[in-house]
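Journal club prep — side note

Before the paper discussion, L.F. wants everyone to see what a predicted structure for a comparable chain looks like in token form. Sequence:
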Amino acid sequence: MEIRKAVIPAAGLGTRFLPVTKSVPKELLPILDKPMLQYVVEEAAEAGIEQVIIVTSPGKESIASYFQPQPDLDNCLSGSPEFLDKVRHVSNLAQVSFVIQEQPLGLGHAVLTAREAVGDEPFVVILPDDIVVHIPGVVAQMVEVSQRYNAGVVAVEPMPWEIVQNYGVVDAVSAGTRLHKIRGMVEKPKREDAPSNLSIVGRYILPPEIFQCLERTKPGAKGEIQLTDGLLMLLKQEELFAYEFLGTRYDGGTPMGLLRASLEFALARDDTREETRSLLGSLDNQ
């Protein structure tokens, strides 16, 4: 099945980054010189995704502005082609549109908000907190699996057993190298109750039937509709596979995770490597 569209939920409050997220959306916080959101849009574009639907909330208008052409800025940068190319690259990644989640009612509700924009076709969900470095990217890897088995795919990563209770995990049986057929899912289980240590990471390829499941999903204790609950309902009628992706994942959802990503990205880049090493060396000597 062809995957043409991606949904990126970006409506959260970003409470772990307060007070900066009072005015700057968490998704626009940078890893070096690019915001987290751009990294995942680039990952989608690399996989052949043509349309990116970003779910935002009131007050996050700057996200839409970031992806729109800015002729005045282009004119100011006309004498600096290196910077002009960077700015224009953002606007040319994919066809980007936006839908508004009026209230923070959970990840499942955010995905459901994009139903009309997605239509009756399979799509990918990408959480911008999870930044994964690999070529090809995680979405491209998952698209290949989805097309091979004509089924939905959930990205997973093995976690140390002592911290498995912090994650949603899958109950699955092996279906090949790095691939598992999902039988169930458990959200933040106790270690002794966990069916595996394969934690769910923020990448999903889903059939359009997920929308019907999410419509029937009852809100949880906080009044939120959880995507995991919708996936459990979907499992009753559709096959889902768990795929252990290739790549290094960074948790951009916490200040220290974002700092780690910035440092390791800087060490990997030719233009920032030596200065970063010097900086880290000077900090070690303090």
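L.F.'s comment for the group: The first strand starts at residue 5 and ends at 9. Keep this in mind when we get to the figures.
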